């Protein structure tokens, strides 16, 4: 293998190593210090999920099952594995948005060099393929062998396992190439400026589509469910079922009524690969020059504008600057969309329950728990996003126009957090709470949720003495796996008892009023604290590392 790599062109090898670390925009993730380590941490999270799935396979071996139950378990596992794989690849394709297509840095740096565009294209495709393979391998490192052994046994695993892995690879390639085809066709059909404007909507639409299909797609575990007339339209339009049929075809267990789905899988895979290849080649030939002429930040439209005032002039200026920075910058959209996807996933789970309920039900504790989680994730995500710089060479305008006290800037940032993080989650929770009875309990919970959202916003502003999107940042060195699992466990551990306590107060007006008053007092105290601290604080635009004094311990006794 090493000799084969050494025979590749030097330009390709150099570009491949560079693009491998740029498939996901790591600068926006604040991880310049150890890029390889960060990718390893993401892989570690997927491997942990695979280990948990393997533990489920181990438990299944201890449960006696009839042949019908074993078939239902096999079909459910196969469909779930394909859906999980396609969700991970879908989110990866959105997070690596535009990474395979030429950008300004490629055009400015590589165009003057004696490097052919096809070499750049092949290097980017190889880098994307390498990380795609890493995601497939990590998510199925253990479950990709445990479940085949449980479901097929020996020697059936000799055919089951290759069919299983081939199906996962085919479904991943299909979805990733479909996203590339959509991006390439859009970039070819419209101008660069329009494409930049539509990019935000395309990213959010892709996030919503992948999560909607994943959470709302039912599992058809029996031949009767597959053959039911009411499910035929769903089978025809949802690709996970196509590749489920493809797996059974490769495994030699394909029912006759699913042969047309396997054909759709082969046709869809071929169309997606051809479309991705054609769009990439055409984009590198025709649109590479456009990337130099158009800025990464979408310019404003011509013509008269009507700007709505948001409080004082400094509040309006900071709010509009933050809003336009978030909507126009691709890197920040991707980061914030990642956090929104978590919120959206929780919403879909509850929406699924709402759609399946024939009549309004009583307010459950689970609804309180997940609305707390949604609110905290949304505020934390937006707070993390506004900490990332957008253009350090342009933040001089804020430095030379700092004519107002620091608390004015903090107040403008507070309004931005409340409008883009707290208010959307509160409105979504209010829409979902309509299906619960009694309505006065749902309304009482919305009051508590609004107070908690404001408290989360105030907590996120502690020590935040800078203008959003304008301050440089230090490379992150935190362990992503520890933060991910730790945050998930701690958040749920706190949300569950808090929700149970709130549920106990909904039937006792005095107890509820005391709880709401206590939350209001905490909110007022945090607001006063942030305001008093901001009066003596100074806005900063550069984050500097702490000065450490190292002693040698050479003291005399």
Order of helices and strands: HHHHHHHHHHHHHHHEHHHEHHH
Distance between the termini: 61 Å
Rg from C-alpha positions? 26 Å
Instruction: Please state how the strands of the largest beta sheet are arranged side by side.
Output: 1-2
**Which structural class should the secondary elements be placed in?**
mainly alpha
User: Mean pLDDT, rounded to whole units?
Assistant: 81
Instruction: Identify the overall geometry.
Output: globular
Number of helices: 21
Domain tally: 2
Strand content range: under 5%
Helix content: over 70%
β-strand number: 2
Biggest sheet overview: 2 strands, parallel
Low-pLDDT residue intervals, each spanning 5 or more residues: 25-34
Written description of the protein model:
The protein folds into 2 domains: 296 residues, no CATH class; 233 residues, no CATH class. Helix content is 72%, strand content 1%. It has 21 helices and 2 strands. Strands 1-2 form a two-stranded parallel sheet. Helix 7 packs across helix 12. The chain is globular and about 70 Å long. About 2% of the residues have low confidence.
